[in-house]
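Problem: given the chain below (290 residues), write out its structure.
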Amino acid sequence: MKEIVIISGKGGTGKTSVAAALASVAQNTVIADCDVDAADMHLILKPKIKHSDNFYSGVKAKIETRLCVSCGECERICRFNAIIHTSGTYTVNLLDCEGCGYCYNICPAGAINLVEQLVGQYFLSDTKLGSKLAHAQLGIGADNSGKLVATVKKEAKIAAFRNQIDYILVDGSPGIGCPVISSLSGADFVLLVTEPTRSGLCDLQRVWELTTKFKIPAGCIINKKDINLPISEEITQYLQKNGIYLVCSLPYDNDFSQAITTGQSLVEYNPSKWKKLFVNIWKTITKELI
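Solution.
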């Protein structure tokens, strides 16, 4: 099987709109929504959950009050000020605790445990398109989104293997942080989605620098090309200089926002305008994987 990852250096480029449109025309494909911090593919693909599981990652300190001797060592050494002392009782503020384990190691009474945290859930669903969708929900303020991305990708690969599916289409996170790094791991092709703004160009350069470290072939879609033609030309020159294939340039179009508002992909919302275009984009990408 081949894994195609769609990422962007910044939010608002139209990455998820492109991913949903490709999902609408792609054949023999499992979809993975790896933007776990702000997942939204489910709003378009209308999944019916077939399997779900809890995601545990990271630890937090917990003080067993029956064992605590109130020596105050944990409060003294906690650099995150996560230990609360109230009426002679020591407790842990979970929002402030970083799970470093220092208090656990210095407690003379052995009253502190490190408890693994439930930080989210992950799902495997059937979509209205007939494809499988691996997706997740990260808890509010929870860490370890990169690990949850790895779990989502693992579920997508298992589903693809069991159903003899050739492609996994991954909607990654914007930016260059841990979720993006996790999304890129093991990918066969990267599709970069950018826009012709100064920040769009700068963030494209950052995300490409990250991509090169994985030595993955890449293509790029310039969305809203006509809103700033001079910067569009700068982006085109940057792509040529770095050997990034320009897959397509898309004009600014209100269909992007209207389709999202109605909970549809571009292909569903206006098939006469978008279906043939995204079929050709999909064919172009898959030819790069042969």
